[in-house]
Amino acid sequence: MLEIKVKTFQELSTQDLYDILQLRSEVFVVEQDCVYQDIDDKDQKALHVIGFKNNKVVAYTRVFKPGDYFELASIGRVVVAAKEREHKYGYDIMNASIDAIKEKYNETEVKISAQTYLKRFYNNLEFYEVGEEYLEDGIPHIAMIKA
Asked: For residue 90, what pLDDT is reported?
């Protein structure tokens, strides 16, 4: 069972931050073999949606109010630990992120920059493609919006 907490940057403990950055690095840098600057000075503005299992961070997103990343509210850095993906925690963490945007920012329209191979996953969450595919850090992405 996933326990989900939503925290501002200031509410993150040092251990929370370490565990989040470790998970992001484990998946986005090592597993996806992509050298990029994950620590991008945007975490301070974000709400952090953290999925804990047995007190370990296994799922995560960061969310932004409109204007802080895109013109619309947005969700990024969507990640689930490889050994936990079979449990479909991606849906739990995304739904919690969508709920956090509604509760904290009173917004229902959300934009993401999705890795193209995950398009169907996001379609299942009612996100739809807008525009053309593009490369971000060498990985095919597509903009998607949930209205």
From this structure: 97
Q: How confident is the model at residue 101 (pLDDT cuts 50, 70, 90)?
A: very high
Interior CA angle at 55 toward 12 and 45, to 5°?
20
Asked if pLDDT for residue 1 goes beyond 90, the answer is no
N-term to C-term CA, the chain: 29
SS3 state of residue 96 = helix
- Name the CATH topology of 3-107: Aminopeptidase (3.40.630)
Q: Are 26 and 81 in contact (CB under 8 A)?
A: yes
* Token output for 105: 């920012």
CA distances from 131 to 65, 113, 127, 146 (A): 22, 11, 13, 14
